[in-house]
Amino acid sequence: MPWKDNFLKKNDVKMDDFQERNKLQQEKDNLEVEKKKFQKEKDNWEVEKKRIQQENNDVQLQKNKIQQEREYLKAEMTSLNDQQKALKIEIAKLQQEKQSLENEKNKQKLTTNTPINTTPQKVPPISNNVQQITWGKSFRCQGCNREYEWGNWFDKYGFFDGWYFYFFYLKGSKNYDFEFVCYLIHSF
Fold it and tell me: Compositional bias of type Polar residues: which residue ranges (predicted)?
């Protein structure tokens, strides 16, 4: 019967349409799943990208910090070099002053030597560090290394007579007294 054929034909088409629709829906669902999967991967890549960017930022900050430390150390080295140069100049000045003082000291040794008088009278030693002094002879000050003559100095300046000085010098029997007398001698 033709109507039956027509009916079946129509139903077959509908059945095919239904199956096709199911198939398409399945593909669509699969595509949605795939899309979600790709979206998740994309999100993961975004997270990774941000992490790498943060690492790059940290590395750049570290580089900047190291550069600042280098510049600080360069400035510190320059400062230390300047201080070292200043110290070398100061040391050279001090060495020149020392040499000048030594030259002056040697000059005074040469100019202050006085002829030695020989008188038999002797004075006992003041201490182990001070030479034995002979009356009338010159003696050397341990503090300034100058030589003095007993009689000549007092005759010239007229401050003590020789015996008073002799008594004062022996009073403590120590270098302190000797240095004090030397101080008195230099004061006049």
Answer: 109-125
Asked whether the beta carbons of 138 and 132 are under 8 A apart, the reply is: no
CB 127 within 8 A of CB 120: no
Q: Count the domains in the chain.
A: 2
Claim to verify: residue 96 and residue 165 sit in the same structural domain: no
Nearest to residue 118, comparing CAs of 136, 97, 131? Answer: 136
Both tokens of 156, joined, read 């010239």
CA angle 121, 126, 128 (to 5 degrees): 120
Q: Counting beta carbons within 10 angstroms of the beta carbon of residue 27, is it exposed (0 to 12), middle (13 to 18) or buried (19 or more)?
A: exposed
Write out the two tokens for 138: 């010159």
Q: Which residues pair with 49 in a beta bridge?
A: none
Q: What residue type is 15 in one-letter code?
A: M
Average pLDDT over residues 86-112: 86
Whose CA is closest to 178, among 134, 137, 125, 135? 125
H or E element, residue 139: strand 138-140
pLDDT band at residue 107 using 50, 70 and 90 as cut-offs: confident
Cβ(116)–Cβ(135) below 8 Å = no
Q: Are both 94 and 131 inside the same structural domain? A: no
Cβ contacts of residue 157 below 8 Å, gap of 6+?
188
**146 vs 22, more confident:** 22
Q: Which amino acid is at 184?
A: L
